[in-house]
Amino acid sequence: MAGVSLKSVNKKYGTVEAIHSIDLEVNDGEFLVLVGPSGCGKSTLLRMIAGLEEITDGTISIEDRVVNDVPASQRNLSMVFQSYALYPHMSVRKNLAFGLSNMKMPKPEIERRVADAARILQIGELMERKPRQLSGGQKQRVAIGRAIVREPQLFLFDEPLSNLDAELRVQMRVELAGLYNRLGTTMIYVTHDQVEAMTMATRIAVLSNGHLEQLGTPFELYNFPQNRFVASFIGSPKMNMLEAEAKGGAVELADFGSLPLGDGVSDGSLAVGVRPSQFLVGDEGDVHASGKITLVEYLGSEMFIHVQLASGRVMMVQAPGHSVYKLGDEIRLGISRRAAHYFDSAGLRVPLFDKQDS
Amino acid sequence: MVETTLHNPDAISTAEEARAIRLTRARRRSRNNIFRHIFLIICSLIMIYPLLWMVSASLKPDNEIFGTLWLWPSEFQWNNYVEGWDALVVSFSRFYMNSIIITVLSVIGNVISCSFAAYAFARLEFNGRNIWFSLMMMTLMLPYHIVLIPQYLLFLQLGWIDTYLPLVVPKFLATDAFFIFLMVQFFRQLPRELDEAAMMDGCSPFKIYWAIIMPLSIPAMATAAIFSFIWTWQDFLGPLIYLNDVKDYTVPLALRMFLSQDSVSLYGEMFAMSVLSIVPIFLFFVIFQRLIVQGIAMSGLK
Predict the structure, then answer these.
(1) pLDDT for residue B258 is more than 90
(2) Is B54 on the interface with A (CB under 8 A)?
(3) Which one, of B222, B216, B9, lies nearest residue B119 by Cα?
(4) What CA–CA distances, in Å, run from A310 to A35, A332, A333, A335?
(5) B112 bridge partner residues
(6) How confident is the model at residue B101 (pLDDT cuts 50, 70, 90)?
């Protein structure tokens, strides 16, 4: 087990900067998820930690050892690839043992580790098969097995579940979480799927365009997003953003009217973010607006209602699944000032009610 | 549906019409099939005729060989094979030995050296990789006859004339751009993540080539081996230039010796030996083409 520390790590392809000076501390035994939209540099960052990609500037250390120039195989880590990258011409057993025999490990020790991994992942009866005879989920397990047998200090996962169908993904997610609890090894996990990120992570690092936007626990990211990018990236459906103007301790919202915020707010433009689940229906809340329902998405346990306000803006509202809203209905929405998020003109969070909330 | 058919006379006639149309179509299809087969059989006969002619010529008495197009010999001259084997100053056992040595070494050399070069072009990073690759591809455009004389002079300087070295050593130096190109294309379609996984598993670039790339490229290797075998086995010009001693001759050169300008040519014996000379190529192809199919089935990468 080991912590990982990135200090002003930088990556340039020619003149294009893919990673802009990232500082990141991964604690020992932590499950850190790197999340972000495609092209944000999360995979590149992971591959740099793995040693598959050179870093242009900065230092990467694993357990206080700077590994900038240490080859991938000697960093004492394992990586699970998106495409699994199992060796097609080797049986499952050989796939698992290949790395160990390269390390000149004694035979009995290899056998013990392979058997252990097979037991943990329940792939005992697949050992003599070739990868092409395995289903997607089985391949995934073998790929994880190949990572486990090395008993590394650090596991790296590069979108390992993205090739699986939805049901299997949920199952493997649970298994991965179980594996983490069992091994307790530091894990760094790349995904673009925020459900994976939220459910598995100890902490999440949100990346965008090669910048680290926010690092925090899933709770912190969801409840206290530090900027507008994180606010709209985390949470599904997206947070509603109301552009507004603050003046004299209150913010003037179109459709809703004036929302008094107290002394903490300075004059200027202010965006008010309200999650679909934070809208209040009816007379509750501090300010209100009426609108017309333009679409209802029924999901069973809940429903998402698209409400068009007088100004033409459409708000996404979450309601319990047993509610009876239908297309064309009038609906009255309320916002509670304590439940909303506020962002200044630079897109940074204005911590108005954070203290009382936490 | 059934009901309407029963109670509606129009429907019945429509169904019958449809049946009639189906029948005519089926008849037409089988007739087309017969024509297609006849045409293809005639084409294949034209293609295979020279080969059959050679086999039949090897069994005919000498006076019948050029007299008639008919393939069936009036009398089977099995003796051509027995006599042909020892008809020349040196026995064909020797010529076969020479050919096999040169061919086997060439195949091994080509497969190893060209796959090394191809691996470098496909996977390793080095300065001027693209320039070297295009230079190599340009050598494909050079006819052999252009490099013939400079090459001969080079080997003369090295003192390699009258040995097998000029025929074998270049094969170990990845001189055949065609094979390199073939393998580069094949290697490129292998997922890079396999290399990376192997790298994490502690493989050096050579080990990645040896343990991962090579076993997955059996189809490409087998293709290269087959072509390399055929081209070397039937090479006439190379041995003609570099070999002077009859004892070192390869099979194609030996066949040429049957035709003499001053005395009687032994045609029957020559054709008998020609037939035998294609047997190794045939066997090699049969064995190795199976590897191509197996290899493609095995890699099943996705």
Answers:
(1) no
(2) no
(3) B216
(4) 36, 12, 12, 16
(5) none
(6) very high
Tell me the C-alpha distance between A42 and B280, whole Å.
57
* A99 and A123 assigned to the same domain: yes
Q: Indicate the burial class of B28 (C-beta count within 10 angstroms; 0-12, 13-18, 19 or more).
A: exposed
Same domain flag for A50 and A86: yes
Q: In the numeric block, which tokens belong to residue A112? A: 């013990």
Q: In this structure, which amino acid lies at residue B47?
A: M
How close is the nearest chain B Cα to the Cα of A175, in Å? Answer: 22
User: At residue A14, does pLDDT exceed 90?
Assistant: no
Is there a single domain that holds both residue A103 and residue A26?
A: yes
Residues A305 and A218 placed together within one structural domain of the fold: no
CA dihedral B9, B14, B20, B26 (to 10 degrees): -150
| Beta-strand relationship, A57-62 and A4-13 | antiparallel
The β-bridge relationship of strands A154-158 and A77-80 is parallel
Residue among B171, B151, B178 nearest B104 (CA)? B171
Interchain contact A102–B (C-beta under 8 A): yes
A-chain residues near B196 (CB < 8 A): 52, 72, 79, 81, 85
Range of the domain at A349: 239-357
Amino acid at site A56: T
Q: Quick check: helix, strand or coil at residue A208? A: strand
Tens digits of per-residue pLDDT, A153-167?
Answer: 999 999 999 888 888
Q: Please list, in sequence order, all residues whose beta carbon lies within 8 angstroms of the beta carbon of residue A41, skipping any fewer than 6 positions away.
A: A11, A18, A19, A207, A209, A210
- In one-letter notation, the amino acid at residue A203 is R
By percentage, how much of chain B surpasses pLDDT 70? 92
Q: Do B216 and A82 count as a contact with CB atoms less than 8 A apart?
A: no
* One-letter identity of residue A321: G
Fold entry, domain B82-299: MetI-like fold (1.10.3720)
Q: Of A232, A250, A285, which residue constitutes the final position of a domain?
A: A232
CA dihedral B172, B177, B178, B184 (to 10 degrees): 90
Residues 6+ positions from A324 with CB-CB distance below 8 Å = none
Same domain, A183 and A271: no
User: Do A293 and A162 share a structural domain?
Assistant: no
Same domain membership, residue A183 and residue A106: yes
Q: Say whether residue B216 is in contact with chain A using an 8 A CB cutoff.
A: yes
> What is the band of A358 on the pLDDT scale with cuts at 50, 70, 90?
very low
Clarify whether residues A85 and A184 are in a common domain: yes
Residue A211: CB atoms within 10 Å? 15
* Angle at the Cα of B169 from the Cα atoms of B165 and B170, rounded to 5 degrees: 125
Q: What is the greatest pairwise CA distance in chain B?
A: 99
Q: Taking CA atoms, what residue in B is nearest to A130?
A: B298
Domain final residue pick, A215, A232, A249: A232
CB contact, 8 Å: A132 with chain B?
yes
CATH number at A307 reads 2.40.50.140
Half-sphere exposure of A341 (CA within 13 A, CB side): 27
Q: Could you tell me the two tokens for A87?
A: 């060796």
Domain count across chain A: 2
Report the amino acid identity of residue A52: L
For an interface test with A, give the residue of B190, B194, B200, B209 to mutate (most A CBs within 10 A).
B200
